[in-house]
C-alpha cells in the first residue's frame, strides 16, 4: 500500500465496525492473523435505501466470487465500491451472515447464546437508523465457500494468511458496516476469531 493512511482502526475479534468512506477514498482490510472472515455491507451514505445488492453484483460480473476488478453494485445497479487490490484472489458472496437462528439450526440449541454477525450488524446499523429490514445478503471477505458440482456450498478453511490485504475504492460516499465474524462452529475463522485492521486512505494519494 502506498496510500497515506488517514484513519486506521483495529477491529477486535467478534466486534462490529462502521465508517463513511468518501468518494475516491480507499478502504483496506488487513487480515492480521489469517483465516478470519469479515462480513461486510455497504450503503449509499446519503440514501441508505440504496445498498449493496448481491444479485446485481453477481449478474454483472458473471461470477459469485469477488476479486480485483469486481464492482460492488447497488440495488439500483449503480457502483458503490470497486476492488482495486486483492492479495487473496477469491471472496464469498453467497454464504450469508451467521445468526443465533442459523447457529441453532446448524449446530444445535446449545449455540443459541453465542454472539453472531446479524447481531453485530443490527447493533452497528442502529447508529444510523438501520434495522433488520435493512440487512441484505452480505459479502464475506476472506471466507472460503466452494461450490460443488451438485450446487452444494461448503464452508472450509480460509485462503488467507496473516497480513494479507484487500482494498476497495469508494465510487460514491459509502456507509460501510462490518462484522468481524464471531463464528466458532465452522472453519471460517479457524475456530478462533481474531482481530482485523481497517484503513481509510485519502483520495488521490496513491
TrEMBL record:
Coiled-coil region: none
Taxonomic classification: Bacteria, Bacillati, Actinomycetota, Actinomycetes, Kitasatosporales
Name of protein: Urea carboxylase-associated family protein
Signal sequence, start to end: none
Domain of life: Bacteria
Domain DUF1989: 10-175
InterPro entries according to UniProt: DUF1989 (IPR018959), UAAP2 (IPR017791)
Species this chain originates from: Streptomyces scabichelini
Any Pfam family hit: DUF1989
Amino acid at each position: 500500500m502506498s496510500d497515506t493512511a488517514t484513519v486506521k482502526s483495529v477491529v477486535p475479534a467478534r466486534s462490529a465496525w462502521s465508517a463513511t468512506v468518501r468518494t475516491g477514498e480507499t478502504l483496506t482490510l488487513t487480515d492480521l492473523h489469517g483465516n478470519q472472515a469479515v462480513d461486510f455491507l455497504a450503503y449509499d451514505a446519503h440514501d441508505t435505501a440504496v445498498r449493496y445488492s448481491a444479485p446485481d453484483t453477481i449478474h454483472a460480473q458473471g461470477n459469485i466470487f469477488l476479486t480485483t476488478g469486481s464492482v460492488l453494485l447497488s440495488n439500483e445497479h449503480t457502483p458503490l465500491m470497486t476492488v482495486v487490490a486483492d492479495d487473496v484472489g477469491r471472496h464469498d458472496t453467497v454464504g450469508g451472515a451467521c445468526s443465533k437462528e442459523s447457529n441453532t439450526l446448524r449446530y444445535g440449541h446449545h449455540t443459541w447464546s453465542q454472539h453472531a454477525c446479524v447481531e453485530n450488524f443490527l447493533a452497528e446499523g442502529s447508529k444510523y437508523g438501520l434495522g433488520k429490514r435493512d440487512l441484505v445478503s452480505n459479502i464475506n471477505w476472506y471466507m472460503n465457500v466452494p461450490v460443488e458440482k451438485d450446487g452444494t456450498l461448503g464452508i472450509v478453511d480460509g485462503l488467507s494468511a496473516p497480513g494479507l490485504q484487500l482494498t476497495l475504492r469508494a465510487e460514491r460516499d459509502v456507509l460501510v458496516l462490518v462484522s468481524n465474524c464471531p463464528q466458532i462452529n465452522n472453519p471460517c475463522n479457524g475456530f478462533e476469531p481474531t482481530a482485523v485492521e481497517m484503513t481509510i486512505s485519502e483520495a488521490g494519494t496513491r
